[in-house]
């Protein structure tokens, strides 16, 4: 089950056993197999089929990450308003929408719960069936400004050069500037010049149009690094002058 796009360091058998002992629950073998590779992270596949319409669409719902052991949620704020029978362990959250394991049966099924619409669906009889049913379909790029950061990271990890530029240009005024500059720096440190070029283009837009919102030390550090690399020197010189004026 190679579904990881990228993720954190593997979980050990000792960590898995400790979690199960602490919560007196047995995790599905398929989940344990996955966290032995990455203890949480982004997924290559991002949709799964549903039997009735959800707030995502008529025939499917979305998932873009899978929680590791530390990210599994047994108690969530919404349960104060809607008390589901049995025990649930949620491994994905998107706003008030959750995907998780429902332990009402000996082998937990996988459920999708939307606490805004009070919709609960069994989407797979077990975890392995759920993973096997995942598939990739591109997210709507035009709605990117409204997406959570993890979803954006999944989109960017799957995007080509043109799509990366399109997505990040739509996010230019996103309030999470630290996250945005992390994306710019990743592009600048790419070994492929087209990605480096769009990194410089995005940095230019930030300096010209959003400079009052920027971390001065971080921008200066990026400019110094670009100067040391002698990458696109004419443009970097122009950016340095604009930044210091």
UniProtKB/TrEMBL annotation:
Stretches of the chain forming a coiled coil according to its record: none
Annotated Knr4/Smi1-like domain residues: 10-133
InterPro entries tied to this protein: Knr4/Smi1-like_dom, Knr4/Smi1-like_sf
Pfam families (UniProt xref): SMI1_KNR4
Gene3D superfamilies: SMI1/KNR4-like
Protein name: SMI1/KNR4 family protein
Lineage: Bacteria, Bacillati, Bacillota, Bacilli, Bacillales
